[in-house]
Amino acid sequence: MSTMIGARRRRLSGPHIRRILVGYLFILPSLSVLALFVVWPIIQTIWMSFNNVDFLNQSSAWVGADNYRQLASDSRFWNALRNTAFYTLGVVPIGLALSLLAALALAEPLRGRSLFRAAFFLPVVSSFAVVAIVWQFLLNQDIGILAYWSRILGLPSAAWLNSTVWALPAVIIVGIWKGLGFNMVILLAGLMGISDTYYEAASIDGAGAFTRFFQITLPMLRPTALFVLVMAIIGSFQVFDQVYVMTRGGPLFSTETIVTYMYHQGFELYQMGYASAIAVVLFVILLVVTFFQLRFLRYNDVD
Amino acid sequence: MKSLPGSPTARRRLPWATGEFVRAISAVSLLGGVLLGSGSLGDTAARAATPVTLTFWNGFTGPDEAAVVALVKQFNASHADIQISMTIEPWDTLLQKLPLSLRVGKGPDISGLSNQYVPQYAQAGLIQPIDSVYGSGGIDQNVIPNGVRQVLQYGGHYYAAPMTVDPIMMYWNKTLFQKAGLSHAPTTLSEWQADAVKLSKHANGVDQYGLAVADNNTIPNWPIFIWDNGGDIISANGKQPLIGRPKAVAAVSQWANLMIKDRISPPALSGADDDKLFQTGKAAMEMTGPWATTGFTQAGIKYDVAMVPKGPGGPVTAGNADVLVLSKSSSNLAQAKVFMTWWNSKSAEEYLAIHSGHPPVRTDMTNDPKLSANPWVHKFAVGTPYARFYLGNIKNYAQIDADVITPALQSIEFGKQSAAAALSAASSKMTKLL
C-alpha cells in the first residue's frame, strides 16, 4: 500500500506531468474538432428534444418531456421503428452471411481474384443516391429490366417499389448489395490474420473442411465478425439514402424508417424539437443494442 | 537666373522653381482643375448611375433554363441602372437553403419558387409585401387571371408576382388511340373514363395503362378529378375541409375503382414515374404541364394535348405557378418592382412563351399571333383561365398534402380503405391543421 502511494507520487513528478500535457496538446486539434462537431451537436440535440423548436420561425419553447410523450403515442413513429427493425433483420444476417461466403471464396488463390474483390467493392464506393436511382429504373415494374427478364422467363414479377408488400424487400436487397463489399473486405482481413499452422495441424489430425471452418475459422474470426456485426446493425438502423431516393418512405409508409421520419419532421415540417427527440430515442436504442451485443458476444475474449 | 540665398546648388538643380515656371504651372493647374471639375460633374452623374445589383435565385434547371437565362440577359442589357445576378440550382437544394438564408439576411433579393410557399414564407416573415409593385407604373392586376391573383396574396397583401403559370393539360398518345379505334381525345368525363378502360390492356406480357395517375411528388392529379366532379378539397376561405363531402368522395371512388378493377394506372405513382410511363408509350393518357413536351417529342411519341375532359364541375384544371418574391431584408423594392413589371410585360412573356412553351399569364395576350411560333403555347393557353390552385393560400400545404391527403388517396388506391372512410378521416385530420 505504501509502495503504491509512493508509486503514485512518483508518477506525478515533473517530467511525467509534462509528458501527459504534451500528449494532450497533440490530441487537442482532433479533440476540439470532435468536441465542436460531434459532442456539442449531441448535447444540443438532447437539449432541443426538450423544447418545441420551429426551424422556420426560429422559435423555441421549453416543453419538458412532451415530445417524448407525443412519440410514444405516434403510430407513424412506431411504424418507422418496425420497418427499421425489419430492414435490419433483413440486411444484417443475409448480408453478413453473403459477405462471409464471398470473403471465404476470395481468400482462396483463385484466378481473377483481384477482379472479383474490386467488383464486390465497387458498390461500396459508389454514391448511394446514384445507386438508388439506377435501382429505381431496374426495379420499375413497367419499364425496368428485371420485370422484362421475369416476363421472358415466365417468372412472376412483383410491383416492387409501387407495392406496399414488396417495397421494403426491394430496399433491403439494395442495402445488402451496397454493403456486401465493405463487410467482405473486413472479414477477408480477419481471415488473412488466421495463421495457417492451425489449419495444417487440423488437417494432419484428420479434420474435414466443415470441422476446420467451425472449430478454427469461426472462433478466430470472432473479434472481426463482432466488429462487422456491430457496425452493420448501427448502419442499418440509420438507413436513409436509398429509402429517400427510391421510395421517399412510401408507398403508404411501408418503407418509412426512423431516420426518414426524423428528416421529414425536422427538415420538411421544420419541427426540430420533435426530430431531436426521435434522434435521441435512436441513440438510446443503438446504445442498448450495442451494449448487449458486446456483453453477450464477449468482445474482449479472444482465445 | 536670380541667385537665391540658402542652397544655391540645390536651386540650380531645380530650374522649374523659378517664378515664371511656378506661374505657368499654376495656370495649367487652374485650367486642369476647371476641366476636371466639369469632368467630375460627369463623374457624379456616373456615380449615381452605378447599377444596383439584385440577386435572384430559382430552380429552373429544366429545358426552360435557356429561356430564363436569356430573358435575364435581355433585362440587364436594357437596364443600365439595375442588374440582375441570377443563380439557378435544382429545386431540392434551393428550397433547403432558402428559408434559413432568408432568415439571416444572406438570401437573395428575389426568389423564384412555387406559389405554395408564399403563405408559409409570408407568415414566417421571410418575404415582404409588394403591394407597390401593383401600383401605378407596375403590374396591371386586371390582366392576371383571378385564380392566379388569389395565390399571389396572403393576409390581404400582395407578396408575389407571376413568373410562370402553367395549366395542367391532358396529353394523349395518338398511336395508342388509333390502335384502340378511337379517333379523338375524350371531351366529357364519361367518355374519359370509358376511354381509359378501353386503352388499358394487361395480357400476354403486355402492360398498357389507359390513364397514368400520379399521387405523390407531382402536380395535382386527384384534385382535378375532384374538381371536375363538382367537389372541392377545401373551402374558399381555407378554413373548412370539403374533401369528405359526397361529390369529392364520389369522384375519388369512381377513379379508384377504375384503377383497382380495370387497372387504368399502377397505384402510388410519383410524378416522374407518371411521365416515364407516357414517354415509353406505356400509358395512353397523362396529365402534366407544358414542360414535358420536349422529352415526349424526343422520345418519338406521337401525341397531342387537350383540355381536361369536362365533368359536372368543369371545365377545370390544376394550375402550377412559380412566382417571384422579395426577401424581407432586401431594401431594393423599387428596383424589384421594375424587374417584376418587366418580367410580366407583353414582350417578355412573348419571348418566354415562344422559347419555353410556358403560356403567357396575361389575359390580354391570348390572341397574340406571334405566339404561334411555338405550336404548344396556344394549346396550353386554353387551360389557363380554368386553372385552380390546389391548397392555394394554405400555410400548412406541405404537411396536409404529404401527411394527410396523399396517404388517404394511397390507402384508397390499394383498396385498404373505402373512399368515404379514408376521406372522412383525412377531413378530420385537416381540420386540426387549418
Task: Explain what you see.
The complex is a heterodimer of chains A (303) and B (434). Chain A has 303 residues and is mainly α. Chain A has 2 domains: 2-48, no CATH class; 68-296, MetI-like fold. Helices cover 74% and strands 3% of the residues of chain A. Chain A has helices at 2-11, 14-48, 66-72, 75-107, 113-125, 128-139, 145-153, 167-192, 196-204, 209-237, 241-246, 258-268, 272-296; strands at residues 51-54, 59-62. In chain A, strands 1-2 form a two-stranded antiparallel sheet. In chain A, strand 1 and strand 2 form a beta hairpin. In chain A, helix 10 (209-237) runs antiparallel to helix 13. The longest helix of chain A has 35 residues, at 14-48. The radius of gyration of chain A is 25 Å and the shape is flat. Chain B is built from 17 helices and 15 strands. Chain B has 2 domains: 52-165 and 320-388, D-Maltodextrin-Binding Protein, domain 2 (3-Layer(aba) Sandwich), CATH 3.40.190; 169-319 and 392-433, D-Maltodextrin-Binding Protein, domain 2. By secondary structure, chain B is α/β, with parallel strands linked by helices. In chain B, the strands form 4 sheets. In chain B, strands 1, 2, 3, 6, 14 and 15 form a 6-stranded mixed beta sheet that branches. In chain B, strands 8-9-12-7-13 form a 5-stranded mixed beta sheet. Chain B has a two-stranded antiparallel ribbon with strand order 4-5. Helices cover 44% and strands 17% of the residues of chain B. At the A-B interface, helix 12 of A face helix 4, strand 11, helix 11 and helix 16 of B.
Strands across the major sheet of chain A, in which order?
1-2
Tally of individual helices of chain A: 13
Major sheet details of chain A: 2 strands, antiparallel
**Binned strand content of chain A:** under 5%
Estimated structural class of chain A: mainly alpha
Helix content of chain B: 40-55%
CATH architecture verdict of the largest domain in chain B? 3-Layer(aba) Sandwich
Task: Give the distance, in angstroms, between the N- and C-terminal Cα atoms of chain A.
Answer: 34 Å
Q: Pick out the low-confidence regions of chain B.
A: 1-12
CATH arch. level architecture of the largest domain in chain A: Orthogonal Bundle
Give the total of domains of chain A: 2
Please give the number of β-strands of chain B. 15
CATH topology of the largest domain in chain B: D-Maltodextrin-Binding Protein, domain 2
What sort of overall outline of chain B do the alpha carbons produce when their principal axes are compared?
Answer: globular
Distance between the termini of chain B: 97 Å
* Gyration radius over CA of chain B: 30 Å
What shape does the CA trace of chain A take? flat
Q: Which CATH first-tier class of the largest domain in chain B would you pick? A: Alpha Beta
**Nearest-integer average pLDDT of chain B:** 89
Going by CATH, the homologous superfamily of the largest domain in chain B would be Periplasmic binding protein-like II
- Considering the protein shown, what is the CATH homologous superfamily of the largest domain in chain A? MetI-like
